UniProtKB/TrEMBL annotation, chain B:
Domain Carrier, chain residue ranges per copy: 2-76
Stretch forming the signal peptide: none
Identification of the protein by name: Carrier domain-containing protein
SUPFAM superfamilies named in the record: ACP-like
Species the sequence originates in: Micromonospora wenchangensis
Amino acid sequence: MTPAPVVISGLGLVTPAGVGVPANWDGVLAGRSTAVRPPQLAGLPVDFACVVPDFDADTLLGRRKTWLLDRHAQFAVVAAREAVGDAGLDIADCDPHRIAVIIGTGAGGTITAETQHRRLLETGAARISALTLPMALPNMATAQVAIDLGAHGPSMSVATACASGATAIGLARDLLRFGVADVAVAGGTDAAVTPYFAAAFARMKALSTRRHDPAGASRPFDVERDGFVMAEGAGVVVLETEQHARGRGVRPRTHLLGYGASTDAYHATTPAPDGVGVERAMRAALAEAGLGSDDIGHVNAHGTSTPLNDVAEAAAVRRVLGRDTVITSTKGVTGHPLGAAGAIEAVYTVLALRHGLVPPTANVQAVEPAVDLDVVVDAPRKNQGTAAVSNSFGFGGHNTALVIAVT
Amino acid sequence: MNPLHHRIGELLTTRFGVEPATIRPDSTLDELHLDSLALVEFAEVLQSEFDVTISDDDISQTASVDDIAALLTAMGAPR
């Protein structure tokens, strides 16, 4: 059986750069960091992060729904609604049993879990919320998106840490390719800018400690980078078989041509030396797409701004695509939205291809010599070529690469 | 409706998103679409808002706003 071609027909975003795709595109093109000192991190060793500004869930979704949903699920539902609307998809006109939902998350409902755990310790078992688990379990963003849309096809949540959003898109594509569903709503979400996560990441020395300059802290590929900046958000796409899109009168322009995944099987947090796992994921995705370095206009890097990630990823990109490769990391603007990152950046990659502009990497003053790639800095760069790669990796050694093309 | 009814209605609206227009003295929690988990939360909200000891076993989904007001009054909540 020949796998069915899969297209990306809808986009949705909730990130520190804004709620909705238009605000996000303006934000990443402007190339300014969104880091702030959110009140919930006050007094912690690392007290800054990128948070979604002015996210008023009650206005966006209505109180009847929001009180039942953790913030990470609220993000996912808002992004999913935008993506379905953008696709022009009327669920009533589809077979709902052929609509799949896969949302990845790194942390699940940790705000709820942390709040209710504190309550358990302070006021006793009789006072914790009956909604604790329906809000905190890691499958609930997926479940709430399915409930909201009325999608009755296969659904699941995936957890590959900071690769979760990209893994979700890749797995959703596989369901479509092999005829399990016609439409998939896929992406990633996380809302883990919490004391628990911030303290734990800080103890790992994974976070930037640039406390005097939060706005300059996320600086992927820069010589002075010293760790990532935590963020939150959601990215969701609507994937469809090309046949399904054409069947409802849509002329699809954006194709998901390749998905590659690999595992370092090396260390829980340190990337394999020289990015050999990353290289395998990228090569697998490109082979599937049938594309080579001449076709790839740019790479939207995982580019976390940690000392280790950025050089390991760059080494892999050089070996696969060459030293002239144009690369950007939108995490300079958004910080690192954990399990949402892969999906958010897949959306940015689609936008870069559609607009013919590669957004700049914020805060880069001097590119780390060991990176040795054509890093886009200061201002957007014209994109050459019709395809691009979006890389995402997760603690645990999970590597993913997506190859996207716009015609 | 007395002030207690109004306060109960306000909690149903602000905390649980119940449409104000649907809340009448004889509306049951079931009619207002509060399911069994929501009932547990509602009891918790009443307990902290009115400073009374109330558990989810004290109210059922067939309880009306009137019934809740009577229960709160019996437990010493101010009218």
